[in-house]
Amino acid sequence: MEKIQTTLLARQFIKKGVKEGGFVIDATIGRGFDTEYLCRLVGEKGKVIGFDIQEEAITSTRERLTNEKIQTPVELILDSHANMNTYVENESVDGIMFNFGYLPNGDHKVATQAESSIQAIENGLSLLKKGGVMSLCIYHGKDTGFEERDAILNYLKTISHKNYTVIVTELYNRPNHPPIFAGIVRDK
């Protein structure tokens, strides 16, 4: 069995709700690993939109997709994930992936913030189709993220249980503040 990591949980969760030909969002593209995964998941007939506030992330992701010869239609947008609802219609998305924190091997002073992250989750919920899924990897260790972690976890408790199912999983016996996985399914 593969070692369980938060990113693995997120990918397995997304895979349950997203099929070939689907429409997905990578809300925080970072270095493009999840963007590439989503492209492979939806295939050439699907569509991926990715967001990041750093040009470095857009460039890095574009290079990754080119090097991997990805043929999926991809739109990379230099904008906050909090604004994704201005680019996408409500109830049109099969899956959304988030990684909260800072750009891997990037400037730790530039990181996601609680207010815009919660706005992004809220906007993302309205974009999901019935049966759509959202994964959240909440990185909060080292020098950043504790306030954002707490705010996101508190927000998740307020999401309507009549319309959504929210799952939160921790790697409980791992040291040094391991990331937290949360998964959301739109039931209605």
UniProtKB/TrEMBL annotation:
UniProt entry keywords in alphabetical sequence: Methyltransferase, Transferase
InterPro entries, A to Z: MnmM_MeTrfase, SAM-dependent_MTases_sf
GO BP terms in the entry: methylation
One Pfam assignment: rRNA_methylase
Molecular function per GO: methyltransferase activity
Keyword Cytoplasm tagged: no
Highest rank taxon of the organism: Bacteria
Gene3D superfamilies xrefs: Vaccinia Virus protein VP39 (3.40.50.150)
Protein name: Class I SAM-dependent methyltransferase
Taxonomy of the source species: Bacteria, Bacillati, Bacillota, Clostridia, Lachnospirales
